[in-house]
């Protein structure tokens, strides 16, 4: 956050004046919204329009002139026109010479045109100083003042002074300008507002798929099986018991999948004997969404914690404990304390609590503002040391939880093992391979490779 | 965070030297604190003072000269004097010509003077380059080195080079300069340190009011009523039971109040047929504090979760369950499992857990560092889609929780309905109206209006 | 976060071209990694190397020339060579005149050399414009594209234009340049990547020490004592019961230690009658790590909360309640509700919940992105008002929890008091001293001292 916090600004405008005139070409929605806002913030605004009669839509205090006349009145011209109509600017090139043209346009698709709109504009009006800005702000938000979302406005351009002038306007509107460098950045800036969580797609689809699979798996084992063989109606397990089985399973599998690509990369590098060849594409993409995978895993782990803590309040659990107590009282017997059982129960809970604790720590350090305050050495310490510790603790939690049932035949229903057994496969593989990779005979060459050493330098070029 | 993390810097100063001399006018508290710090960071410091004899208060290594002499020694002069005494600079105008004057003053009230102190200084010494800076840092923090709070120093000024020079000093002191643009921003910068959570006032006052009302409401129903009619002392309900009734009620009402203004705005726009007229003032203000309302609601929801999870540990609850079990054992009966009850209990818990989960997600995305990493499209997706999902889940949670009691006469005491019934009014209204607004016959014109279409363009100007 | 979110960039490069040639001196690991990345982002790259035959290691599309030839081809030269070999640049001084030299070197120890590597480079090649950059990025991360950690690149240098050119390259690589001012900042920038949580060392070591002490203390009282005198095996207490005793104790002590230095500082200032003398070194260091102490305390408090909520699920606790219920049923008696007990139990839970709630609030406001959005007045309000409120609530929670046992002789085993009694010493001292300091006769002079007043000004200079 590089700005005086937001909402305050939105109310406190109107106070300052003495601003320089700004010209806006185009009287469409965004042009008008921007004009309104600029006038509110004390800027004299001139609209450039083909016909000067559509004035009823335009803010009262703004002048409406022809394009050529309007351009003369201001040093900064905001082009609030769609890219398809940029051609009409070509004949105006003389009027626009030396002016700062602000390209605020967006496209409908990512990489819709070979060059960015701003670069296209620079080709059409070569004498002007093009600055890309404002495209990440919605007209509706600008209009209603409800800029709760990001107030960041990416700005790029080749002329430093022009960029500064535009950034001053951005600041005056209560927004935060972020210099993104030269006009070459325009393509990226134009693609930015079109994205919808691109890095989250794979983790979320994967977890949806796994959730569906494990839901039906547990439904068969825990609801349908007892209904058929014991004629018991446990359909209400769908609300809490089954989700509380799926959540820890997904948390564990996804957490293991965060560390699997790193292990695979190490194997590939050891095999190739160099770090200077690119990984296969799927591995590259997998590595880039590890953070998102981890956060989805954390979400499932958190749900698991709440579902577990809620257990003693559930009316079914209360009923079960009360019936058990009553039956003991009626049978006139008191069971002695089973210390082994107490050990098992307490230690799987303790392992789970510690695992969750470190998992949350990992989550907090992945907050942008925290990870920005951490250097590379610290980040690696947290993400790899603490990360593996979390994985070990969570795997141990699951192992101790299910320990007693592993070999019991009653835990197989229709030959289906308990779901948590399936969840142990990936984490155990990751931990075993990682354990092998720690051995000096493998760790040393790997370190050398990562420091730039190559086994067969002659082949690598 | 645009700086090498903080505390490290504070210890590691003294290392560098070769700095340019800085002159400070005024030997008051802030002047001296700044002088100390500048000397620590290797800057030669000259104080300009009316009398050069108050030297005992001044850092040892600093020179104290008359204003005119001191001004000659440095290119940058920090004006550590109150605005009322700026007049004395007028006769020095010649000595100050071309110098960078840093205005660090603050006022006692918001918008105390028509123009900012920095602009006033610029009028008095027109030949100097005025830069506003340092006013957001406390002298005490500067002195003690305990800058745990924000290290951000807002800087503004019309001369780019002067601003750069001041920003370099700011950086050298271990602080983070933030360019706020031209001197017009000075007013806002001077108001900034005077504010005390202005956006939080309404949500906090509202929730305090509602809390008080519901506290006495529940006190009457749950403590006074049973005391009078059944002579039972449930006064200890004040500690947990009643707070755990108030918290979910407030969370639900406040969450609904986050979405109510959006719904009202839609109705107003549909009625007016344009988006280009301002909303009434109260609606504008309400919309600007929606984020804060939501976060207060989240705080209440979190308290509700902890209060609920703590239930089985409460000695009262343990006593109640044990007595019930003992009475069952003594009566020699075991109740069978009531599946409907198990369904109801599990599903209201599950709805609550999911509602809370999405609520926390909303809270995390409203962290500044997260919302800055999200574009407008993603932000709208999260805040409106996930937001309404949360509201639906939480309302359903409350409905299922109380479902069985709605029509039972025993739930009315002194004709007062259960408190949670009152809490359902606002969310149900919001959800019903929102549901109506989704219908195409209303949604389509609304979309058009928000894209700039106007029903009666001739009237709008 | 000042950049278009990260990972997207890493995939979307290659699109732009027309970049200016960059020259890299040195074909070591970092040089090659940087070369690879620059080529990927569309920069023509020329390597300067002693022998032009090691070309097999070098990216295919890069040219390899002698140093002098390579330098001629580009305006920017990245010096990917270790400081010890900088001497070889002296004879090239003429070729490097007016060029931008980017120093990317790191050292092995903090403050290894009297001057920074960048300043040393400036001495060797006085005609060049030296810019420090890229040293905070790891070659491995650059190579693999997995820059999940901080993407911040600290940049400093005396020439504004040179700095801008380097910052544009940084941006083009998908990283975030942060201007740190003049070349004097280079020392700090070079030390930065060598640090490993320097501020966390003391809090973590302290809490490890205290944890060990209290672990054995509780082990003796709760496991060994009953084993010897009652021959009961409570060894499973190690998993949950003992941690759940240690965590709240440490949370309370560490929280009190956050506020102790402030209280000590006030006493010292009152005694000395001035704020302008430095505190003893240990107090300075203690004050600088208060935030970290508080966060460690919060971690222990969170663990305590989860350990406590898990209680009713523990098999030992279930066994104990069931046996108790059964024994009551067998003895045919039902105990009436003990209202005092219900009050005590509910109120210590309520105090704990509220204390934890405010503690979490404090933790959230200490997130960098939140504390940056808060001015000094708001920060002091939160950290001191809410902080003391938290301390009071947590101390009261502990007092009410143990209230009934304080004077009971059965709570002393081997003359050892219950561990929580020890934990009350520091917080009670802090609260009592703070309470005394609030009295006007002490508060007024303290305020005056903190506003710059001195009791004996003649002695202070």
Automatic annotation (TrEMBL), chains A, B, C:
A Pfam family this chain is assigned to: F420_oxidored
Where is this gene product found?
Endosome membrane
Read off the Gene3D superfamilies from this record.
Answer: NAD(P)-binding Rossmann-like Domain (3.40.50.720)
Q: Name one GO biological process term.
A: iron ion transport
User: Which terms are listed as keywords in the entry?
Assistant: Copper, Endosome, FAD, Flavoprotein, Ion transport, Iron, Iron transport, Membrane, Metal-binding, Oxidoreductase, Transmembrane, Transmembrane helix, Transport
Under the heading SUPFAM superfamilies, the entry gives: NAD(P)-binding Rossmann-fold domains (SSF51735)
* Mode of membrane association: Multi-pass membrane protein
The residues that cross the membrane are 204-229, 249-271, 292-313, 347-365, 386-407, 419-442
Which InterPro entries does this entry report, sorted A to Z?
Fe3_Rdtase_TM_dom (IPR013130), NAD(P)-bd_dom_sf (IPR036291), P5C_Rdtase_cat_N (IPR028939), STEAP_metalloreductase (IPR051267)
Q: Which residues form the Pyrroline-5-carboxylate reductase catalytic N-terminal domain?
A: 21-107
Cofactor requirements of the protein? heme b; FAD
Major subcellular location class: membrane
Which residue range or ranges hold the Ferric oxidoreductase domain?
A: 249-394
Q: Name one GO molecular function term.
A: ferric-chelate reductase (NADPH) activity
What's a GO cellular component annotated to this UniProt protein? endosome membrane
Reaction(s) this enzyme catalyzes, per UniProt: 2 Fe(2+) + NADP(+) + H(+) = 2 Fe(3+) + NADPH; 2 Cu(+) + NADP(+) + H(+) = 2 Cu(2+) + NADPH
Family from the record: Belongs to the STEAP family.
Name under which the protein is recorded:
STEA4 Metalloreductase
Provide the taxonomic classification.
Answer: Eukaryota, Metazoa, Chordata, Craniata, Vertebrata
């Amino acid at each position: 956050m590089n700005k005086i916090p937001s909402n305050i600004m939105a109310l406190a405008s109107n106070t300052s004046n003495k601003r320089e005139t700004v010209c806006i070409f185009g009287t469409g929605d965004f042009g008008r919204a921007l004009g309104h806002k600029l006038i509110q913030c004390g800027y004299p605004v001139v609209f450039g329009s083909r016909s000067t009669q559509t004035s009823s839509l335009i803010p009262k205090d703004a002048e409406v002139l022809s394009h050529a006349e309007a351009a003369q009145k201001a040093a900064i011209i905001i082009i609030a026109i769609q890219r398809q109509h940029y051609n009409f600017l070509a004949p105006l090139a003389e009027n626009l010479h030396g002016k700062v043209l602000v390209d605020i346009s967006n496209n409908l698709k990512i990489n819709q045109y070979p060059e960015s709109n701003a670069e296209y504009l620079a080709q059409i009006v070569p004498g002007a100083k093009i600055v890309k800005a404002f495209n990440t702000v919605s007209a509706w938000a600008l209009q209603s003042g409800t800029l709760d979302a990001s107030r960041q406005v990416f700005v790029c351009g080749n002329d430093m002074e022009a960029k500064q002038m535009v950034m001053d306007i951005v600041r005056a509107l209560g927004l935060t300008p972020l210099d993104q460098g030269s006009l070459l950045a325009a393509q990226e800036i134009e693609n930015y507002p079109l994205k919808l969580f691109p890095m989250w797609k794979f983790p979320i689809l994967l977890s949806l798929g796994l959730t569906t699979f494990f839901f039906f798996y547990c439904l068969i084992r825990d609801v349908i099986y007892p209904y058929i063989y014991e004629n018991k109606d446990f359909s209400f397990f769908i609300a809490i018991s089954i989700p509380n089985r799926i959540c820890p399973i997904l948390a564990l599998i996804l957490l293991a999948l965060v560390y699997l690509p790193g292990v695979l990369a190490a194997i590939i590098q050891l095999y190739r004997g160099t770090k200077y060849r690119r990984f296969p594409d799927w591995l590259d993409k997998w590595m880039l969404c590890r953070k998102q995978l981890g956060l989805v895993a954390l979400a499932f782990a958190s749900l698991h914690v709440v579902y577990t803590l809620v257990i003693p309040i559930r009316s079914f659990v209360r009923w079960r404990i009360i019936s058990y107590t009553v039956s003991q009282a009626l049978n006139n017997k008191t069971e002695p304390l089973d210390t082994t059982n107490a050990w098992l129960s307490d230690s799987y809970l303790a392992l789970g609590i510690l695992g969750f604790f470190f998992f949350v720590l990992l989550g907090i350090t992945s907050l942008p503002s925290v990870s920005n305050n951490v250097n590379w050495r610290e980040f690696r310490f947290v993400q790899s040391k603490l990360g593996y510790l979390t994985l070990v603790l969570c795997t141990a939690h699951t192992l101790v939880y299910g320990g007693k049932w592993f070999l019991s035949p009653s835990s197989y229903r229709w030959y289906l093992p308990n779901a948590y057994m399936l969840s142990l496969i990936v984490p155990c593989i990751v931990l075993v391979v990682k354990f092998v990779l720690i051995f000096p005979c493998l760790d040393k060459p790997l370190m050398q490779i990562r420091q730039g050493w190559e086994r067969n330098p002659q082949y690598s070029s």
